[in-house]
Amino acid sequence: MRRKRTAKRKLLVQPKQGETFDVQAFLDSAGAARRIVNYKRSDAIYSQGDPCVTVMYLQHGRVKLSVLSQAGKEAVVAVLGPGDFFGEGALADHSVRIGTATAMMESRVLIIEKHEMVRVLREQPTFSKRFIEHMLARNIRVEADLVDQLFNSSEKRLARTLLLLARYGREGGHDRVLPKISQETLAEIVGTTRSRINFFMNKFKKLGFIDYNGDITIHSSLASVVLHE
Hints:
This protein is of the alpha+beta class. The chain has seven helices and eleven strands. Strands 1-8-3-6 form a four-stranded antiparallel sheet.
């Protein structure tokens, strides 16, 4: 009697309750077709109008997502950190990229082919759950950004942007050092002028909310600017 062939793809071990979910290890064990690419500061990971055939997972570094208008004006729509997915428009059958992804510092990106991402999402409920949680969190962030732009002052928007870049609240309330980010980029994110950014950065420094000398150290006291009405 012939033995049944063992499945080519091994079953994945489910993470224990309270255990940190390792996306890369999960993709590795799922056998997904992917590659790791390292980018230098200012390198374009993809550009607006490029074919949209892959999904990315940021392992290390920081990535800026921006959109260029027909008039040539650039708007920064998001700044991503380690653990963030991007390029997910491929899963919505977008034929081309609607924006540009640029490395803001040395970054390491896991690039997953669209068909493999779809397969893993279908076959692995744990990974699918994690990805859906990411997308929901991204949508909530987009809504919060819109409210921020509509109703808050540029000073409060800058404070919120710095806290988000520092990932304040994700891993405790300790001081965080941001990689170098230009005032021009901050102005694009906040939606104001560079001179206003410079004014508020100096104000935050004098008040002891940040240390600003090339790198930016964010103190938890900066949250008072966002919370203050």
